[in-house]
């Protein structure tokens, strides 16, 4: 407690202070007048200050004291509660005392630097903040409580303010030679703790690449990290060359976020970077090729990437130019529209070229699960394969879905297969029911087959958007997405591809609402789909094939596919199961339900430490109405 604790109560406060002050026995002790008497006793002895001036107020002599030098940093490393760095994070004890004037600026997650005597720096972040008692007195008392209730301010210096630090790395060197290593040294007691404010030191400490695909700006608690550089923000990028391993695009990306979290906005901004004219990748024959992007679009939003964003003003564009961020509508954008009976594609939200296509039934030779309906068991699925093989043997690649239905109506076929023991008649009937359960109007429509549009579907530097919003049933949407995606994956993984264009071009497959197509399920056909995309994910690095999955229900994506994803971009999610499924560090997972639109957590172990980012406030292409 301080001197003020005993002098704040006035005469009118009813605590006995007034009566005591009026006692004649106390007159003159405080240098005040009582009952009209002049309390000047002892003035000759005690009223002269150090400058020879008369201190007739009866108080102590006052001196003007100016501290020498200036305070540097936020505080100092403290040894009072232990100072220990260990291999086991739970055994590490590292705390800093934060001075009174700096306390309002300190936040959980803030990045700090602690220098060693030889010039190396300990890069760390704040993981805990606490007030501790400065003096031995107990502040949980009636007197202390009432004193606080009668004052307007808070005396910071009455308490110690301690920041608990998590060591992240040791940074050493300067300029382009700056490097990091694991924490292997303990800082000195009393070492100055400073806020990390150098762009290069922050990126080195967090292992953020200097170049690559831009995702957003580093932030802490929803506020961008500021530095002394120009621009003052710290850009976060994903590795995109072979210098330090494979480009992370081919090790797959997941964007997870609830409705209104900004995941489509963020996804457009990232995809636009992959389509930049200056971004190329080596091919198997030694050439350099731009990325092709095929984006499946359930809400008819991604074809808007053809158009400029009218809200992107000149000042914002200059900022993007300074940071090397690609922006503007992408001219080489084509909307590949699936033709379906009784369905019309409006396409009113963009000016991209439109090309109609149909799904030829011939794709069922390699993808029998397209016509499996649902619920086929392990006995019925082989029967479907037998029927499809016989059908295409008799009708060739030109065989249609309608012809296949008529083929199954032949009683002689059913009897032959039953008598030969190849397909029991009950199994035959079950397969027939499932095949007829597939919605009509999606196969063999009046448009060019997708198998003949490989050079339109996959174009180096081109964006192909496959909208499904206009299709009337979810099953039709599923057939279209899985047929086109399966065609791309098969040609990428095959040793004898049907399309050299698909096989040779670096390819990114974007799939919005991925949980609807790659869900873990017990049906044979679902298992076959997941198996195909799991294999695609495993072989992606070698074949220059990347998956870019977007979902609001990450917990529904098949685990075998999920495990192959290296980069997770997590925006606001309110569901605990969804947050748990993305498997990000607990300190960041706790922030996810509270993040505003555009805030995100990026967990990419092969790229950087887990970090919090803020995406661009404006979409680099057209977005929305």
UniProtKB/TrEMBL annotation:
Listed Acidic residues bias regions: 1-16
InterPro entries linked to this entry: HerA_central, P-loop_NTPase, T4SS_component
Top-level lineage group: Archaea
Helicase HerA central domain segment(s): 244-477
Record region (Disordered): 1-62
Cross-referenced PANTHER family: SLR6007 PROTEIN (PTHR30121:SF6), UNCHARACTERIZED PROTEIN YJGR-RELATED (PTHR30121)
Protein name (database record): Tubulin
Organism: Halorubrum lacusprofundi (strain ATCC 49239 / DSM 5036 / JCM 8891 / ACAM 34)
């Amino acid at each position: 407690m301080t001197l003020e604790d005993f002098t704040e109560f006035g005469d009118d406060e009813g605590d006995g202070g007034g009566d005591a002050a009026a006692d004649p026995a106390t007159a003159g002790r405080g240098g005040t007048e009582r009952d009209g008497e002049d309390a000047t006793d002892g003035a000759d002895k005690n009223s002269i200050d150090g400058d020879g001036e008369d201190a007739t107020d009866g108080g102590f002599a006052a001196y003007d004291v100016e501290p020498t030098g200036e305070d540097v940093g936020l505080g100092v490393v403290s040894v009072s509660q232990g100072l220990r760095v260990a291999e086991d994070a739970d055994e590490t004890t590292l705390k800093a005392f934060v001075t009174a004037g700096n306390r309002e600026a300190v936040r959980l997650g803030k990045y700090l630097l602690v220098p060693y005597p030889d010039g190396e720096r300990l890069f760390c972040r704040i993981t805990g903040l606490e007030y501790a008692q400065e003096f031995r007195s107990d502040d949980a008392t009636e007197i202390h409580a009432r004193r606080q209730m009668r004052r307007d301010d808070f005396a910071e210096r009455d308490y110690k303010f301690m920041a608990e630090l998590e060591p992240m790395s040791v940074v050493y060197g300067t300029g382009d030679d700056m490097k990091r290593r694991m924490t292997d040294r303990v800082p000195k007691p009393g070492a100055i703790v400073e806020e990390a404010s150098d762009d290069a030191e922050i990126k080195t400490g967090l292992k953020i690449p200097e170049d690559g695909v831009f995702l957003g700006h580093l932030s802490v608690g929803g506020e961008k990290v500021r530095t002394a550089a120009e621009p003052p923000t710290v850009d976060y990028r994903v590795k995109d060359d072979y210098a330090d391993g494979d480009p992370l695009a081919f090790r797959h990306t997941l964007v997870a976020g609830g409705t209104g979290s900004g995941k489509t906005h963020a996804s457009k901004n990232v995809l636009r970077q992959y389509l930049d004219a200056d971004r190329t990748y080596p091919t198997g024959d030694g050439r350099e090729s731009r990325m092709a992007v095929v984006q499946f679009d359930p809400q008819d939003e991604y074809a808007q990437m053809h158009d400029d964003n009218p809200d992107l003003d000149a000042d914002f564009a200059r900022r993007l130019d300074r940071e090397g961020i690609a922006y503007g509508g992408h001219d080489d954008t084509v909307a590949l529209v699936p033709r379906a009976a009784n369905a019309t594609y409006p396409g009113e939200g963009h000016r991209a070229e439109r090309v109609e296509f149909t799904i030829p039934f011939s794709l069922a030779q390699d993808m029998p699960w397209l016509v499996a309906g649902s619920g086929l068991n392990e006995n019925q699925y082989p029967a479907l394969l037998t029927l499809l093989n016989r059908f295409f043997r008799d009708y060739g690649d030109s065989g249609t879905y309608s012809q296949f239905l008529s083929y199954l109506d032949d009683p002689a076929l059913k009897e032959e297969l039953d008598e030969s023991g190849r397909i029991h008649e009950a199994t035959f009937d079950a397969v027939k029911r499932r095949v007829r359960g597939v919605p009509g109007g999606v196969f063999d429509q009046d448009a060019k087959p997708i198998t003949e549009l490989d050079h339109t579907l996959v174009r180096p530097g081109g964006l192909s958007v496959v909208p499904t919003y206009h299709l009337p049933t979810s099953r039709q949407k599923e057939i279209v997405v899985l047929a086109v995606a399966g065609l791309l994956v098969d040609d990428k993984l095959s040793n004898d591809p049907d399309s050299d264009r698909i096989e040779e071009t670096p390819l990114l497959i974007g799939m919005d609402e991925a949980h609807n197509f790659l869900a873990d399920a017990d049906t044979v056909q679902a298992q076959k789909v997941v198996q195909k995309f799991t294999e695609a994910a495993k072989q992606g690095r070698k074949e220059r094939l990347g998956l870019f999955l977007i979902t609001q229900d990450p917990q529904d994506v098949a685990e075998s596919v999920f495990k192959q994803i290296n980069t997770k971009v997590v925006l606001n999610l309110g569901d605990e199961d969804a947050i748990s499924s993305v498997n990000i560090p607990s300190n960041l997972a706790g922030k996810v339900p509270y993040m505003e639109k555009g805030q995100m957590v990026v967990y990419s172990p092969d790229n950087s430490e887990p970090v919090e980012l803020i995406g661009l406030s404006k979409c680099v292409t057209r977005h929305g109405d």
